[in-house]
Amino acid sequence: MHITRRQFAALAALLFLPGMPKAADEENAVVWRAKSPANDHVLFGYVRIRADTFPDIVAEGKRLIDQSKTVLIDVNPSLTLSTAKFKNSDLKPVFAGLTPSDQDEFKTILSKSPAKGAIEKLSGFEASLLLIGEGQHAFGPDAPSIGLALAKYGASIGRDVKTLAADGEMRAMQKPLTLETVNSVGPDSITYLLDLRRRIGPIGAYFDELYKARKSAEIASLGEEITAKGIVTPTDLIDADKLRALLIERIANLPAGKNAFIILPIGLLNGPRNILGELRFRGAEVAAIG
C-alpha cells in the first residue's frame, strides 16, 4: 500500500481540529489579525483545497498580502515525508465486515474512484481516505491549493516567502505509519463514514462548502466527530503538539516590523489547540477579520 500526497491531504483538513472556538465572530472566519507593539500580523487559515474554487477568499488573501511586508507559511508545501508501503497480504480488507446494504453502497460510491478494481480488497485506512476525500476539488501543479497559491502570489510581487518550520524539523516530528495503525481502522469506522455521508453528502465536497462559507467552527466540530470514531488522521502521523509549540514560538519571536501574512492550518486558529490564546497571553491583540 502506498499513501499518496493527495490521499494524505484529504485527511489533512482534520489536523489540529479537536473542538469549537469560543468567540461568535470567530465561528465564521478564516482570517485573523494579531497586533502587538512590535508587529501587525495577518493569520490566514487554510485547509488543503483547490484555490480557484474560492476566488473571493483568494482575492482577500492577495489584498492582505499586498499590505504585508513578508509571507510566512507553516511548512514547505513541496516537502516530501517518508511514505509507508505494506504488503497487500498484510492488510485487513474491510469490505467483508460491512453489512450487505453497506457493502452495496460502498461499492457504488467507490465505483468511480481510483480503487474501483480493488474495492473488496481495500483496508479500512485506504477506504477512509477515499470516503473523506470524495467530492473534493482536486489540486495539483496547475491548480494549486489555496495556501500554496497565496504563497506563490506573495513571491510573484516580490515578497520574501519563508516557512516557519524547516524541512528537517518536520521530518524529525514525523511518526511512522505502522501496519497496526493501518489495520486499526475497521468496519465500524467505515460504517460511521457511510452514515455521515448519508447525512451531509460526499464528505470532501462538504468540507469544501464549509470552508467556502468560512464556517471554521463547523469544520472543527466535524473534525472532532470524525477523529472520535477511530479514523486515522495526520495527528497520528506527526507530533502535532511539538509542531504547534514550534509555530507559536516562531510567530511570537518574529523581529519587530516583520508585519507578516502568515498561512496556517485553520485548526490552529480555533478550538482548544488554537494559538490565538497563546498569542494574546504574550501581549497581542487578536481578532477575526474575515
- Estimate the mean pLDDT confidence: 88
Low-pLDDT runs: 2-24
* Straight-line N-to-C gap: 41 Å
**What is the structural class?**
alpha/beta
What does this structure look like?
With about 290 residues, the protein is α/β, with parallel strands linked by helices. It has 12 helices and 6 strands. It has one domain (about 5-290). The chain has helices at about 5-10, 55-65, 100-110, 125-135, 145-155, 165-175, 180-185, 185-200, 205-210, 215-225, 240-250, 275-280; strands at about 30-35, 40-45, 70-75, 160-165, 260-265, 285-290. A hairpin with a 4-residue loop joins strand 1 and strand 2 (about 40-45). The longest helix has 14 residues, at about 185-200. It is elongated. Keywords: Signal. It comes from Rhizobium ruizarguesonis. This is TraB/GumN family protein.
